[in-house]
Each structure stands twice: as C-alpha cells, then as structure tokens.
Amino acid sequence: MEHATFRKTVLPSIIAVIMLVLFNAGLYFRLSAVEIVEPTDISFPYTDTFETDAILSQPNFGGDWDIRDETLVQISTTGFDLGLIVPLGIAPEQAYQYSVDMRYIGGSMGGGMIFNSQNGRNRQQSHMARFNVDAGELWVIYGYFGDDSNFTGQGSTQVAIAPESTEWQRLGVLVGADTYAITLNDAVIAENIPLEYQGGAIGLNTSSSQVAFDNLVVQAWDGSDTPTVVSDIPAEPVGTVTTDDLSDALVFDSFDISGDGASLWLPFSGAWEFRDGAFVQSQEEGFDLGAGYNAPVGDVNVTTTLRHLEGQGGGVLFNMATADSQFDAHMVRYVHDADFLFWGYFDVDGTFTGQGSIEVPSPADTAHTLQVINNGATYAIALDSELLAVDIPVVARGDYVGLVTAQSEVAFDDFTISDARATIAIPTTPIAEETPEADNDGQFNTVTGDWEFGETIFQRSDEAVDYVAGTGIAAETFTVSVMIDLSEAPEDAGAGLIFHMSERENIANGQMIRFGNGGTEIFWGTYDANGVFEGAGGIPLNGIDWTEPHELTLNVGTDTYDVLIDGAVMVSDLPVEGTFGYLGLLSYRGTVAFSDFELSIGR
C-alpha cells in the first residue's frame, strides 16, 4: 500500500521537480546563447553619415529602422523609447561630446539619443535625452533608465520649436566625469546634470514618433561649454533633387505595415489596406478616393511609385487643409479613362479647378513614379523622371499630403516626403507646357470638315452635315467657352461644342449642343456608340443679332451641365450622360468662325 502511494504521489512530484529544474536550466542556457555584442574601442572622432547600412547590424530594442537615401529612419509610431545601440567602448573617465541631426517625420515628435549605455544592448542602465510634446509645446526631456529599465527623469527644457516642425535639429550631449550638458543646434540648453552611469555605448531612440537621423558625431570633449563643430558635417543638411534622381535626404515609407498595423495613414474614402508591402486602394468605383498622412508636413516635395491593378486614376494630394478630406487641397493624378495626367485644386466646398493637363503614355500595370516639386509659391510635376509642367501656382495652403485614386484599383509601393528647401534641378525646357487653355496653337485637329486653324478658326465645308474639330483635351468636369460667328454662313448654318467624346477623333458617346437655323435656336443631344445623333431638347432664341459673334459657354459637372449665351444662363441642369472624354468644336454647313476658346478644367 505504501509502495502504491509512493508511485502515485511522491514519484510524480519528484519527476515534476526534476523537469522544472531541467526546463529552467535549458531556458538559462538558451538565453545565455544569445550573442552579446562586445563594446568596440572607440577612436575619435567617430562619425556616421549613413551612406551604408552598417548601423542596421547593431543591436536594437524595438522599432522599424532602415537606411533611406543615406539617412537613418525609424518609422514605427507604436511604442515608447524604441532604440538602436552603437556599442562603442567609451572609457568611464573619457569626456566626450555626442551629437546627431534629427528631423521629425510623423507621429508625435519624440526623437532623441542614448548615451553611457552600460550593456550596449538595450536601454537598461543608460542615459537618455529626447524631444517630447506636452500640452502642445516641444520640450527636451532627460534622465536615465535604471537597473530595472524604468526611467527616472532629471529635468526638462522647453524649446522654441513648433512640435510639428519638419526642420532639421541638431541635438547633442557634453558628457564629463560626473555631470553632463545638453545642446540644441550647438547651444547649451541644460547643464550640470548628474551622471548615474559613466562611459559605455551610445545610441538613438524614438518615442511614438517617426524620425530621420543624419550626421552622427562622437568626439573627445575638452570640458568647455561650447561644443566643437566638425566642419564637414553641416548643422542643417540640405539635399539636392534632380528629375533623374527623384529623392533627397529625407524619405518616409510606411507601406511595409501588414494588416491593421499602426500607421499614420488616414483613409477618408475608398477601401485602403496594406498588402504585400504596398498601400492599396481596391474600390474600383468612385472618384477622388483618398488617404491622408495624418501629420502636418508643410510645403514639401512628394514622390510616389504606383501601379494600377485595375483601371487607371492614381495620384497624389498635397497642401491639404486636413488629412481627412481632399477639400481645399491640390491634386495631381491620372485621368481614369484617357491617357492624360491632370492637376489643379479643390476649394473649401470641394469644387475642383483645373490648372493643366497633358497627354501621357498609358500607365498600364507597370510601376510609375510621380513627383510634385513644391517650393511653396509654385510647383512642378515630373513623371518617370520627365518634367511635365513647371511654375504652376500654389493656391491651397494646407500642411498635409496624401494619395488618391479614381475609378481604379491602385497599389502605392512607396511614398517620399522631401524637404522643400532642397535645391531642385529643373531643365530649362520641360517636355510640355501645362494646357489649361487651347488657344489655336496646334492643339486642334480635324475630325471631319474643312478646318483652318489660326487665331480665328474657320470651318468652310458647305454640306448640310455636322463637322468636328477635336481639341486633344479630355476632362471630367470643366467650364468651356468659345465665341461663334455665323455672319458669313448660310441661313440654316449652325455651330457649337461637343464634349465627352470617346476619342479625340471619334464623336461616339459624345454630347453636343449647338446653335441651329442660323442661330435662331439652340438644341442638344448625344451621339451613340456608332456616332448616330439623338436629340434631347432645344429652345428658340429670339432677338439675337448674328451680325456680331456670340459667346457659348458650358459649365459641365459630374451629373448636370448648364448652357450660357453671352454670360446669361439659357438652360440649366441638363443631364450629363458620360463621365469623361474629349472636347471639340462643332460646325454645321458653310463658313463658320470660332475664336477666344477658353477652358478651365474643374467646375
């Protein structure tokens, strides 16, 4: 009986104890097997301008660190005091100064530095100084992480820098035998702070913030209050951008986030998700479906590489008033059903005004790089390193940037925010000028009829049929006007406009409105897919003197359009049948003259 009890109770307990001991021993030896990076003896000065990714092999304790265009960036906004250590073996008695350029990219400004790290692997037993936003103001806080890794603050200093500033700042420490001081842009902002730990490694850290670092310097210190400036490390680095190398010193890219991972991107319409290292908008129906980057960046250059998975219509937003709307913002994107790129701005009510457009090759499903070069007063546009337009006036003045699609599924592979202060190398002759107006400079082309293009455009064929001259310009919403002169035409002649043609030389699916019977009436209708006209309505015009030309204007919106003659509304809220297409001039019989053609994309 006693034997049975031993087997059922005592023996299992002994086995459990043995297993527990073996498990803990195994765990101990497994953890002990982790490679410990030994401190490296330092020779001064130690510098790193991040031209290579060597620093990425150093220990880190959280965050998403990468080298982008010779700049070290940490792009995760999740977590506090995420760090990367450079295990330098600085002797305890060595006085030294350590400084680094840093720039806020996103989140809540929290970039900083670690020094006198005792183990060279994490934040335990180390000092820290970093930026911190509190009550809408920017501070530099400092202190140390103790033996238990908990932070003990030693003080804070408010600084006269806006929390959302994207300017480069140079943060530094002057480390002595028993105390240290903190410098900002080479000026001492706090001093005589007691050291808890002496000597050791240095590092970088961020807290709920995306930060770029550059020009790291560690060198011997002579104990003076003035830090030594290394002449070949500029205090405020300025990048250079060319249209062959569409990037500069600062890059932001969060598209390696998976699923619902933390991100500063704020979708406000459409179906956005992080998928296979890209930011994808998958809703194919709908216009101006956008996502804003939810941190103010001011006047910056933006670059994105995008692929159209279905349809076409991808582009960028910039100078947005808020991160959650395209209202009061600039936009540059592909036209959804024609091979054009167009640009302009939304007003505070969401009405779009075009500033130009240009025909470009079809994007198909290959990757293309779109760049907006914004100096605050004007902007330029480049596509695949070719400059499309320059000196476009900046109208919207917001601080946010974003991405946008229309009638398409688009994958954005990367997104770059570049310093607007950078020197932009722009060719003196762009490949094309912006085309908000077609002023008889060869943009018109004959579709049918006998057209003569010049300052005044004539159509001279006498047969009783409609003749068309295409403008080569396509648009969704717009205002177009033209002066029409019927004084030399037969009594039954007519002239007008056609819009939303399926092709620049094909009237199929277009909508037409023109004067008829010598200008005594105006009527409208549509052409079907075969180019057959079907009338939709008309009204008589009484008392118009056709010995003088008259102006015909169309205000075309997404659902309806209005017709104006000499600035007065004749007909309003006529239905728009299509969504996009080419514009043209329309003539019926005899010598008809057109002049003063003006087009403003957007309504």
Question: Would you kindly provide a written description of the structure presented here, covering whatever features stand out?
Answer:
This protein is mostly beta strands. The termini are far apart. 5% of the residues lie in helices and 49% in strands. It is elongated, with a radius of gyration of 33 Å. Mean pLDDT is 81; it is low at 20-38, 230-251 and 421-442.
The low-confidence parts are 20-38, 230-251, 421-442
Cα-atom radius of gyration: 33 Å
Count of distinct strands: 46
Oligomer: single chain
**What's the total helix number?**
1
Question: How does the major sheet shape up?
Answer: 8 strands, mixed
Class derived from helix and strand content:
mainly beta
What is the residue-averaged pLDDT?
81
Approximate shape:
elongated
Helix content: under 10%
Span of the ends, CA to CA: 97 Å
Binned strand content: over 45%
Give a quick set of tags describing it:
eight-stranded antiparallel sheet; 1 helix; 603 residues; single chain; 46 strands; mainly beta; eight-stranded mixed sheet; 5% helix; elongated
Describe the structure concisely.
The chain is mainly beta. The chain has 1 helix and 46 strands. The strands form 7 sheets. Strands 1, 3, 6, 8, 9, 10, 11 and 15 form an 8-stranded mixed β-sheet that branches. Strands 2, 4, 5, 7, 12, 13, 14 and 16 form an 8-stranded antiparallel β-sheet that branches.
